[in-house]
Write a structure and sequence with these properties.
The protein is an alpha/beta fold. The chain has a single domain, classed as TIM Barrel (Alpha-Beta Barrel), CATH 3.20.20. About 35% of the residues lie in helices and about 20% in strands. The protein has eight helices and eight strands, in the order E-H-E-H-E-H-E-H-E-E-H-E-H-E-H-H. It has an eight-stranded parallel β-sheet with strand order 1-8-7-6-5-4-3-2. Helix 2 packs parallel to helix 3. The longest helix is centred in the C-terminal third of the chain and has 14 residues. The termini are close together. The relative contact order is 0.17.
């Protein structure tokens, strides 16, 4: 079943607890939590403190996407903050990705890697057996509300073929520009998890939108 992970980057920052608390009744599966450090991307968002705060408002898995340099430094803080999933960029300054993935698992969280739109899937194929998921960015990271990059679909298909050929259970997550039209295309290409920010939080009826995204 397709999972929908609304990104709270598009939620009302002044009412974050309420926004997160409503996601489960609206039909969401995960809460997507974008961490930006102002270095890896030109924006600053949330840290472990916000993760700990929203943990009190939901029992949905919190899916933390680290858009930061030195992501290994944040494994323990996000574990302590209640995160369930932690993904790190292959383009970051992390030199030992295998070790980082092992450390995330040792901390009791699901682990994954993230690829920017211009990064080929060959950069993560040797890591797939250690990944619970691979997050493919379908926009350039740093800001919400961007348009879906169509070339992402060929990456989804190629990654799906690689995962299936090796008999792995690694999930494919897509983040950026997801709306009912692009969601359908991503699902047909082989995606398992869809991150949607503006589409959900700006919708007149978020529950209907989540149902529409799921297909």
């Amino acid at each position: 079943m397709i999972k929908i992970a609304p990104s709270i980057l598009s939620a009302d920052f002044a009412a974050m607890g309420k926004a997160v608390a409503m996601l489960k009744e609206q039909g969401a599966d995960w809460v997507h939590f974008d961490v930006m450090d102002g270095n890896f991307v030109p924006n600053i968002t949330f840290g472990p403190g916000m993760c700990k705060a929203i943990r009190a408002y939901t029992d949905l898995p919190i899916d933390v996407h680290l858009m930061v340099e030195h992501p290994s430094d944040w494994i323990e803080p996000f574990k302590n903050a209640g995160a369930d999933v932690l993904t790190i960029h292959v383009e970051s300054s992390e030199r030992h990705l295998h070790r980082a993935l092992q450390a995330i698992h040792a901390a009791g969280m699901k682990a994954g890697v993230v690829l920017n739109p211009a990064t080929p899937i060959c950069t993560c194929t040797h890591l797939l057996a250690d990944c619970d998921l691979v997050l493919l960015m379908s926009v350039n990271p740093g800001f919400g509300g961007q348009s879906f990059i169509p070339e992402t679909l060929s990456k989804i298909r190629a990654l799906r073929a690689e995962i299936d050929a090796r008999g792995l259970s690694t999930l494919i997550e897509i983040d950026g520009g997801v709306n009912p039209e692009t969601a359908k295309q991503c699902i047909e290409a082989g995606a398992d998890i869809l991150v949607a920010g503006s589409a959900v939080f700006k919708a007149n009826n978020p529950a209907d939108m989540i149902r529409s995204l799921r297909g």
